[in-house]
Structures are given as structure tokens and as C-alpha cells.
Amino acid sequence: MWIRNLCVFLGSEPFKWTAAELEEKLADALCPECGNQTVSVAGFVPPIKGEHAMSYAVDGLVIAVHQEITRVLPGAVLTEEVDERVERIETAEGRKVSRREKADIRDEAHFELLPRAFTRSKRTPVIVDLRSSRVWVDVGSEKRAEDIVAALREALGSLPVKRADSRVPPIEELSRWVEDPTTLPNGFECGDRCSFESSDEVKSTVRVTAMDLQREEVQAHLAAGMQAVKLNVAVDDAIEFDLDENLDLKRIRALDLIQDDLDSVDVDDAVAELTARMALQGEALRGVLDRLYTHFGVVGEASEQAA
Fold it and tell me: pTM for the complete prediction?
């Protein structure tokens, strides 16, 4: 497992569960099988296929996986079936099928075709950081992340978390980093990707890839009043990612410092591989989040309230 995107939810009070308690609650929220007439189901599944454990804990990070199974019945297939049935009726009975009757035919066709539709599964890693009282969701969409956190909240009974609220406006700070890289936190470096957006109603967008961000033509976007809404950043030669305006991490990639350790992980033992990878990446990401939240003045975390 390697986390590629990170949408983080911050605890408004310290998490009180133990890893064992989380395991028990997740087992009660197991994803059911998708029945023949079921459009979709969702729940939690073992992180490692073939194993029974619903979670694995390492360094205060509890690793779980949310799964959504959806029956996919393409609209074009359903429409074609309905049209054929309507045509048969009109030809056999010499009359025009009404709109209401056509709607009934569509419902009937959907009911009959659904069991033959193929299913598609989405598995999303979820990490509960018991030490920092945060929830990490490995997904690029904030809406999907919120849905998964809602499922986790239902499984646990309660989950007092919310999105990051920073004192320093992220867009202004990202723009400042592009303009003057010396303003980045210690150990952070700008990479070669950035997305700019205009501040007017049009919201024009410019994406820069594989280019020195100090070049004149790149800096000209800032001079024209555009702002950086996503910026590629490397930290401590260990990890790189795109940081966006919500302080989410996208396209996370290991650099040499971590990659060398990842290459030495025992891949013959699935559990050992999972926990080793999570230990390496998890500690790095936890440190990155701590430094980002300190720099941006993120408020409302459990650690602040507890202090």
C-alpha cells in the first residue's frame, strides 16, 4: 500500500479508541455482497485480501479500507432495450406507446437487466491517526472523502472531525512560495508543477508542468494577478506531493530517502509489507502535516484544545 492522495480531517477532540476497539467496530461495518437487485453497497473490508483482520496498526496509525461496490448498467444499453420493447408493442398492437407506459417499460427492463450487469469495486484506504487525532483518506475528491468519513462515523458511533481551517490563506501563501522560494518552511522546496487561477469570476486556469517556476514566463502569471492554487513541493528529499488550496496532498511520491527503504521491504509477507510501508510513509506524512499545519496556523485541532 502506498497513499497517493491525502484528504485530512482533524479531530475536534482527542480520539479515545484503541486499535482493538477500532478493529471490533469495523468488523461490525463489513461491506455486504451486492445482491442481484442492489444498485450499490458499501462498508469496510480487510486491507489485505484473504486475511480476516479489518485493520492493522503501526505507530498509532490504524489502517483500514472502505469499499463501495456498484452494479454498472450503461444507460445506452437500457435505452436500447426499452426502444426495442416499445417498437415491438407498437408494431404488434398498431398503437403509440404513451410516455407513462414507456416509463413502466423502462422500470421493468431495468429490473430484468440489473442482475446481469457487471459490478465495479472501489477500495479506498483510510488511516486513523490515534496519536494526532486525524483521519486520512486516500482519495482525490473531497466529496468522496466526506462520504467515506460519514461511513466511518456511522461505524464508530461518533467521529468529531472537520476539515482544516487555517489562519494563513493557503492560496496567498502558495503564491508567495512561487514568487519567493526562500519563504518556504525549512526543508521544503518548490518542484516543477503549479496551477494558477485568476481571481475574477471567469476563473481562468494555467497549468505549468516540468518547468522551472522561477522563469520569467511563469512569474508573469503572478504579475498578471493570478494566484497559485496548487504547487508541487518536495520535503527533506523524502517525499513530494502537490499541495492544493485546501491543504490536501495530491500525487504523493517517495523520493530517494524513503524509496531506498521501500525497495528493501519484504514483499513475500503481505502483512509485513503493509505495516512496513505504512511505517515509512506514515511517519513522513505525519511530520509533513505537523509542519504544514504549524506554518499555516491551522486551528481547532484536538492537540490545541488539549493543551
Answer: 0.84
* Pair (108, 187) in one structural domain: no
Q: Report DSSP state, residue 35.
A: -
Q: Is residue 58 part of a domain?
A: no
Residue 195 contacts by C-beta under 8 Å, 6 or more apart in sequence?
A: 205, 206, 207, 208, 228, 229, 230, 231
pLDDT tens for 5-22 read 999 999 999 999 999 999
- Evaluate whether residue 232 is within a structural domain: yes
Please calculate the CA angle 270-272-275 and round it to the nearest 5 degrees. Answer: 105
Tell me whether residue 183 is in a domain: yes
Contact of 19 with 166, CB cutoff 8 Å: no
Residue-number span of the structural domain to which 293 is assigned: 165-306
The dihedral sign for the CA sequence 202, 207, 211, 212:
positive
Answer yes or no: are the C-beta atoms of 81 and 109 closer than 8 Å. yes
Give the three-state DSSP class for 139. Answer: coil
pLDDT digit string, tens, across residues 148-177: 999 999 999 999 999 999 999 999 999 999
**Same domain assignment for residues 196 and 299:** yes
Question: What's the number of domains the chain is made of?
Answer: 2
